[in-house]
Amino acid sequence: MKTKYMPAGNNESVREAVRKGYARIAQAGGSCCGPSRSCCGPDSARGVARAVGYSDDELATLPEGANMGLSCGNPTALAALRSGEVVLDLGSGGGFDVFLAAQKVGAAGRAIGVDMTPEMLSKARGNITAFRKRTGLDNVEFRLGEIEHLPVADAGVDAIISNCVINLSPDKPQVWREMARVLKPGGRVAVSDLALLKPLPPGVLESVTALVGCIAGAVLVDETRAMAQAAGFVNIDLVNKAGYVENMADWNDPLYHGVKEQLPAGAKMSDYVTSLYVTARR
């Protein structure tokens, strides 16, 4: 099933645009909207994390720079991780959710991050030493790879998390198939992502900035359910968290204001886009 929101036969150019955009973020700091620490949230990356459900206690355990303000939800909370489990994070960036997940699964478990951007991978790996010193845990690793072709063995993980990343893929059905492949029988998925309530105007879809900002690549909520079902997942639950997008109107977010200019008069971004929590079992 091909999403109609990406140019047909143009997967590699989409992937390269995303890779370059996130390389700039890793090198300059900041969030998906640009180098400013505040462009995607209320004053800081910490403010973004708080707004989408992370506690101050969780944030206090992170190495400096792991939280880059790239979240649109808290998948580690959705996953209900347990001691001894192996958890995989798709599009792990600076390691934010991997470091949190590693604490939940403990010394007997393992947290693995996969990212296709070498600059992000370098940033995440550079945070491991600080994480070890802060927590006493040595249970994280980061692998270079695309989420459409995961560098993970079949049936090798108990849980998969992902935070505002699957929307960036030009082949989302393949991502769901890969998740099904690497999960153990009965394993689970917990994803926070941006999704569409109705199709976006053409001007937004053509914007590389909106793509890297996780909006132009989003698909309809019902398409997400269909892709998960086609990959063999069951007990699929989708919950809209519209408040995240509504709050963007009050943030110093150039992406939000740029997209708003492309919408019909009187329309709001939250009429089109929602933060979506997805849970499912293999």
Q: What is the CA-atom radius of gyration, in angstroms? A: 17 Å
Shape: globular
User: SSE string, helix = H, strand = E?
Assistant: HHHHEHEHHEEHEHHHEHHE
Tell me the β content: 15-25%
Structural class assignment: alpha/beta
Estimate percent helicity.
25-40%
Strand order of the largest sheet: 3-2-1-4-5-7-6
Model regions low in confidence, pLDDT < 50 over at least 5 residues? 1-9, 30-43, 208-213
**CATH superfamily caption:** Vaccinia Virus protein VP39
Mean pLDDT: 79
Instruction: Tell me the count of domains.
Output: 1
CATH architectural label: 3-Layer(aba) Sandwich
| Strands, total number | 7
Distance from N terminus to C terminus (CA atoms, Å) equals 20 Å
Task: Kindly list the characteristics that best describe this protein.
alpha/beta, 7-stranded mixed β-sheet, 13 helices
Quick recap:
With 282 residues, the protein is of the alpha/beta class. It is 37% helix and 19% strand.
What does this structure look like?
It is a single chain. The chain is built from 13 helices and 7 strands. It has 282 residues and is α/β, with parallel strands linked by helices. It has one domain (11-281): Rossmann fold. It has a 7-stranded mixed β-sheet, with helices on both faces. Strand 4, helix 8 and strand 5 (183-196) form a beta-alpha-beta unit. Mean pLDDT is 79; it is low at 1-9, 30-43 and 208-213.
